[in-house]
UniProtKB/TrEMBL annotation:
Transmembrane region(s): 12-29, 35-55
Broad enzyme group: transferase
GO molecular function, one term: phosphorelay sensor kinase activity
Gene Ontology cellular component annotations, sorted alphabetically: plasma membrane
PROSITE patterns associated with the record: HIS_KIN
Keyword annotations from UniProtKB, A to Z: ATP-binding, Cell membrane, Kinase, Membrane, Nucleotide-binding, Phosphoprotein, Transferase, Transmembrane, Transmembrane helix, Two-component regulatory system
Major localization class: membrane
Source species of the chain: Salibacterium halotolerans
Protein name, entry field: histidine kinase
Length: 332
């Protein structure tokens, strides 16, 4: 800050130095003026200037130091004392109020759009349910299976969109309890049954640990996304779902035998919109499923890890916090 202050006052300092040099020059060319007293006066003037600059530096930069160190919140900044500081303060205060007002209006608009979208999704689910009942009455098995598959695709897309809008506020919707894994997993498998039959995929479910401490609804969404991801890239192979105890934590692993993930892609698979570098032309992937999984896991304090080899498949592992850790983290 002192460097910037000296640059700001550079013209004043140059003027002072010029006046002192002019005084010395006059003393040198005028025989009637003794040089020694003039040099003494110049020295005293310089000392006084240095003291003056130090004092003024502390006073004049206090306001701007606060501006520099502030987090765009002017409420904690002391009022300006000089006329120019007051001009800056008034302008900043006016702009801050204007931006806050615009931000508030923008947030209200976003909330309205979110509520309208959620309402639309719920409304669309009604004709989807009716379509499902109509599909069940179709006699042609081939057509029926095709309709079931397309219906499931629509349902999963709507479900993903619904949860994407809810995730930023999911902490308001959590209900942590002991959740039975078996009915939850089989419910999700049943929902994806038509897709699995179409691709010749089976499931091997082995649950050593049957209960976990979590929110059942959001865990179901997470498992749904992981199963959807596994089914999408697997052909005519089983998907294994296992739970076990490891290092005093319950672990749930979902293993597929699909195309696998390249090692260079693993650090990026949870990034929004990332699909793949090895199969970049694949339009089946939206790059949103694993991104939503990562964001849904945070409020639940569940850790996720991935192991994968290209051509061999992938294993997604969820590690649940135990009760004591959950209480320590959340205070619940």
């Amino acid at each position: 800050m002192i460097k910037k202050y000296l640059i700001e006052r550079c013209s004043w300092l140059i003027l002072f130095i010029g006046l002192q040099l002019l005084t010395i020059f006059i003393a040198l060319i005028d025989p009637s003026i003794t040089v020694r007293p003039v040099l003494y006066i110049v020295f005293l003037s310089t000392v006084i200037l240095v003291v003056f600059v130090i004092v003024r530096y502390q006073k004049e930069t206090a306001f701007y130091k606060q501006l520099r160190d502030s987090d765009y919140d002017l409420t904690d900044i002391n009022k300006g004392t000089s006329p120019f500081e007051k001009i800056v303060e008034e302008r900043l205060d006016g702009q801050t109020k204007q931006y806050k007002n615009e931000l508030s209006q923008h947030n209200i608009k976003l909330e309205q759009e979110k509520d309208e979208l959620l309402s639309w999704i719920h409304e669309v689910k009604t004709p989807l349910t009716a379509m499902q009942l109509m599909i069940e009455r179709v006699e042609d098995k081939k057509v029926k299976e095709q309709l079931k598959y397309e219906w499931l695709r629509m349902y999963l897309l709507l479900d993903q969109q619904l949860h994407q809008k809810r995730i930023p506020f999911m902490e308001n919707d959590l209900y942590i309890e002991q959740t039975n894994l078996e009915p939850l997993i089989f419910q999700e498998i049943k929902a994806l049954q038509s897709w699995c039959m179409r691709k010749g995929i089976g499931f091997d479910v082995s649950l050593e640990i049957e209960e976990v401490l979590t929110d059942a609804k959001w865990l179901a969404f997470i498992i749904r996304q992981l199963l959807t991801n596994a089914i999408k890239y697997t052909e005519s192979a089983d998907i294994s779902i296992t739970s076990y105890r490891e290092q005093q934590h319950t672990t749930l692993a979902i293993k597929d035998h699909g195309r696998g993930i390249d090692a260079k892609d693993l650090p990026r698979i949870f990034d929004r919109g990332f699909t793949s570098t090895t199969a970049h032309q694949d339009t089946a992937s939206s790059g949103m499923g694993l991104y939503l999984v990562k964001n849904a896991l945070k409020p639940l304090h569940i850790k996720i890890s991935v192991q994968s080899n290209v051509g061999e498949g992938s294993t997604f592992t969820l590690t649940f916090p135990n009760k004591s850790e959950f209480v320590a983290i959340t205070g619940m």
